[in-house]
Amino acid sequence: MPEVMFADPDGRLEGRYHHSSAPNAPLALVLHPHPLHGGTMNNRITYAMYREFEKMGFSVMRYNSRGVGRSQGRYDGGIGEISDAAAALDWMQMVNPNASGLWIAGYSFGAFVGMQLLMRRPEITGWISVAPPANYYDFGFLAPCPCGGLMIAGENDELVPEPAVRKLVDKLNTQKGVSVDYRIFKGADHVFANQAEQVTEALEDHVSTVMNRKMLALAAD
């Protein structure tokens, strides 16, 4: 897991990047929880998703947003953090100009940032949102949502109640051409203390299903 440093409008950000040995491998960018509540790229769920993408043959990055770890700058209420994510994506695309796909995976606050990035970058082909803070942030910007994805909620999440996530899923599923794979983990709270493996299994299942479906569609053409 080589350490990388890349430029951001407000300084330099640190990340960890795995480069796939497969030619034109798909890319994945993994976003961590809220920096003011201890969120870093070494968060357990963030790290687990990163490793799962690595196992699946992706070139994958996780990074510290501004003001976290050795990343320069300071927390910017979400606006600057979206710029951080875009800078990370720019760096990955520069290194991988012929990547065969691009996925965004975010946990909690990282899910909010990831969905904001989704609306700004049409080349994103899929997304994973774990415990998106639908009760704190207005996700109305997902109109229209450019593609379907996987959304995960904890049944006993005390910070982001499951009904708030379900409401968001129901709203997205009314959009034409959008299908959200929604999974509720029994007994899970916001930190998914005993569910890291469940998260990675769901990620692998969803991503593999979507990618296989696209390969079949291309073969049919």
As a percent range, the share of helical residues equals 25-40%
Low-pLDDT runs of 5+ residues are: none
Q: How much is the average pLDDT?
A: 96
User: Which value, in Å, is the CA radius of gyration?
Assistant: 16 Å
Cα(first) to Cα(last) distance is: 38 Å
What is the H-and-E element order?
EEEHEHEHEEHEH
Task: Describe the strand arrangement of the main beta sheet, using strand numbers.
Answer: 1-2-4-3-5-6-7-8
CATH architecture classification name:
3-Layer(aba) Sandwich
Total DSSP E strands = 8
Structural class category: alpha/beta
CATH superfamily: Alpha/Beta hydrolase fold, catalytic domain
> What would you call the shape?
globular
- What's the CATH class label? Alpha Beta
Largest sheet: 8 strands, mixed
Number of domains: 1
CATH topology tier name: Rossmann fold
What are the main properties of this structure?
8 strands; alpha/beta; Rossmann fold; 221 residues; eight-stranded mixed beta sheet
What does the model show?
There is one protein chain. With 221 residues, this protein is of the alpha/beta class. The chain has helices at 44-55, 79-95, 109-120, 162-173, 196-220; strands at residues 3-8, 11-18, 27-31, 59-63, 102-107, 126-130, 149-154, 180-185. An eight-stranded mixed beta sheet has the order 1-2-4-3-5-6-7-8, with helices on both faces. Helix 1 packs parallel to helix 5 (196-220) and helix 2 (79-95) packs across helix 3. The protein is globular, with a radius of gyration of 16 Å. The mean pLDDT is 96. Residues 150-204 form the Peptidase S9 prolyl oligopeptidase catalytic domain. This is Alpha/beta hydrolase. GO terms for molecular function: serine-type peptidase activity.
